[in-house]
Amino acid sequence: MEPQPPHFVRDSKHWAAAVATGTTERWTDRARDRGIRVAGVAIILLGAGAVFLPAEKGISSDVIGAMLVAAGLIEAVAGSLRRQVRELAMLAGGVTVLAGLLFLVNPETQFFPTVMPIVGWLILRSVILGYASTQLRGAVCTWMWISAGLDLLLAVLMVAGLSIAAIVVSLFGPTAPLIASFAWVIAASFVANGLMLLEVAGGESADQG
């Protein structure tokens, strides 16, 4: 039978292993939080870019599609870094990517075919984020509710405004203010999503603690 090392040697090895494991986990958490924070800032910047789209010249479907795909991919990557509701967070990003691909694959120059996919995208995101928020608590839960509620409100406002927009478009075509309001809807959703991710960065670990 092989001789066992003294107790203090075994204890010191266990202590060293525990310290190493804890340090690795802390660094992993820091890298994860940093990645989510960067994603949040990037989506907010995309929202700012949507505000400054040249509404007077019309908004290209390709531009809208590219912005949605970029935001969706960023959100999906950020979702993969999350500790909680990871699958739902990635699904919300996937819905955004799908909406963007619809614009890229089937470009439309008319106003209403462009509006309806955005309404559907907002409603789907609202449902996904709302359900995900029921599985959370604390500030992260609150911000997910805010993001889900804003998306639903934007969808309702767009549907409610379709009758008025139909009159305006039929008389004057897609006017610059009408197109600008469309860009602002995308920007508002992006900014709310980005702010939510900034809260998620570090917020989930605090809620778990």
Q: What is the multimeric organization of the chains shown?
A: single chain
Supply Rg.
23 Å
Percent helix, as a range, is over 70%
Distance, first to last CA: 45 Å
Average pLDDT level: 76
Low-confidence stretches: 15-27, 109-113, 164-176
Largest sheet: none
Order of helices and strands: HHHHHHH
Into how many domains do the coordinates divide? 1
Number of strands: 0
- Tell me the structural class: mainly alpha
Strand portion, in percent?
under 5%
Anisotropy-based shape: globular
Q: What's the tally of helices?
A: 7
Write the layout of secondary structure elements.
Layout: H1 7-51, H2 61-80, H3 86-105, H4 111-133, H5 138-160, H6 162-172, H7 176-208
Helix pairs in contact: 1-2, 1-7, 2-3, 3-4, 4-5, 4-7, 5-7
